[in-house]
Amino acid sequence: MSITQFLSEYGYLAVLAGCLMEGESVLLLAGLAAQEGYLSFVYVVVVAFCGATLGDQAFYFLGRYVGGRLIANRPRLQVRANVVTALLQRYDAPLIIGVRFMYGFRILGPIAIGASTVSPWRFLTFNALGAALWAPLIAGAGYTFGYALESVFVDMGVVEKIGLVAVLFVAVTIGLHLRRRRRDGSEARPEKPPS
C-alpha cells in the first residue's frame, strides 16, 4: 500500500491523530494526498485545525495541573521551559500563536504556558488563532510540493518512492545526529571524584 493510498483510506483520522501531537509530517503528506485527489484539501485543513487546537489545549491543561512538577523533575526540559517563560513575559500573545511553529517547543510550549498564569480562555483564543494559521500553511506546503513534483514527474509512483527515500534519509540523519549529541554530551560531563 502506497503512502497516498494509506492516507486516502485512513486520511482524516491519520491527520487528526498526527495533529494532536506534532503533526507537521502527517499534514505535509495529507496536503500532498489532497493535491493528488485522495483527500479534500478543505477537510484536511479543518481536521488539522481541530487536532492541533485540541492537542495543544490538552498539553496546556497538563501543564496547568502537573506542569511545574513535570518540568522540575527534568533538567533538560527546565532549560527550554525557562526560554518559554521568558518569552511569555515579553510576547504573550505572539508566543501562544507561534509556539507550534517553534521546533522543539510544540509540546513543551503549551505545557510551560499552562504552568504559567495565562488563563485557559486566553490560551484557547490565541491557540485557535495559531492553529488557523498553521493548518492551511503546512497543508498548503504539502499541496504545493505535490503540484511542483507532478509538473516535473509524470509517474507519481516514482515521486512516492523518491519521497519515501527522502523521508527515510532525513529520519536516519536526524537519528544519527541526536545519538551523536547524546554521546558527546555524556562524554563531556565531568566524572564525580571518588568519595
TrEMBL record:
VTT domain location: 25-143
Transmembrane stretches, start-end: 12-34, 40-62, 126-149, 161-178
Keywords attached to this entry: Membrane, Transmembrane, Transmembrane helix
InterPro entries linked: DedA_domain, VTT_dom
Protein name stated in the entry: Membrane protein DedA with SNARE-associated domain
Top-level taxonomy: Bacteria, Pseudomonadati, Pseudomonadota, Betaproteobacteria, Burkholderiales
